[in-house]
């Protein structure tokens, strides 16, 4: 009976492991002035996909060996039939190819996700990138779209959140406190882009400076707990005091040494330019509506 159980568990685990999809990522091709980014983009994508439970990612050395044997280069877009052929040699389910090209002041990363069994393009996700500094976040977004395609899910919801997030960036740069606060919520939860506590903190600070008392309180909580920044009791006290004086009663009494400066002021951004402190890429679209999940339980009073 025990042997039967062991065999059953082995088969069950084997079935679970085999359910993971095998994927290979080519080096991205690019326009001449983006060549330095093409390999970086592919490496980031490999790392991101490897962190997803749904995928097993082919090692780059193994991919290069197969391509060398076929007289092909790591960089470049293969035709779909050749991509399928290479994928079969790797025993992969999907082969990812990508290209980087100019788009306005930034650039765009396009990709093709080739189904190895059929030779058809399963998906062609793309992301726009405002600058080289924003590349990692954009590739993380691309990885999420590839996962959605592999799972047969639509990326429409993700895209709509990104449109809203881009709109919020624009509005926050116009010093609109409610929009800065909503942008911080988006960044905290990773809606429409990368989840990043440090950037969320910057946006809560911006919302506080521009007149949102709860933004002051959330910033204080993050400094107090060491989220998105090292623990900083002094800054936490400053933001608790600002929140209290602005009418956010839950903040009152949390600061041990009251100060006499005004409720709001750009000095809270550390003396820098408020727009540059926000830390999100430039806006590209607008969309009405908001994100209903506008509280963070761990930061509530």
* Helix fraction bin: 40-55%
Order of helices and strands: HEEHEHHEEEEHHHHHHH
CATH fold-level topology of the largest domain: Rossmann fold
Total number of domains: 2
* Class from helix and strand fractions: alpha/beta
Mean pLDDT across the residues is 77
Question: How widely separated are the two ends?
Answer: 55 Å
At the fourth level of CATH, the homologous superfamily of the largest domain is TolB, N-terminal domain
Number of β-strand runs: 7
Largest sheet: 7 strands, mixed
Q: Examine the secondary-structure arrangement and name the CATH architecture of the largest domain.
A: 3-Layer(aba) Sandwich
Coarse morphology:
elongated
| Rg result | 24 Å
β-strand percent reads 5-15%
Q: How many helical stretches? A: 11
Report low-confidence residues grouped into runs of 5 or more: 4-18, 257-292
CATH class of the largest domain: Alpha Beta
What do these coordinates show?
This protein is α/β, with parallel strands linked by helices and 301 residues long. It folds into 2 domains: 152 residues, Rossmann fold (3-Layer(aba) Sandwich), CATH 3.40.50.10070; 139 residues, Tetratricopeptide repeat domain (Serine Threonine Protein Phosphatase 5, Tetratricopeptide repeat, Alpha Horseshoe). It is built from 11 helices and 7 strands. Strands 1, 2, 3, 4, 5, 6 and 7 form a 7-stranded mixed β-sheet that branches. A hairpin with a 2-residue loop joins strand 4 and strand 5. The radius of gyration is 24 Å and the shape is elongated. About 17% of the residues have low confidence.
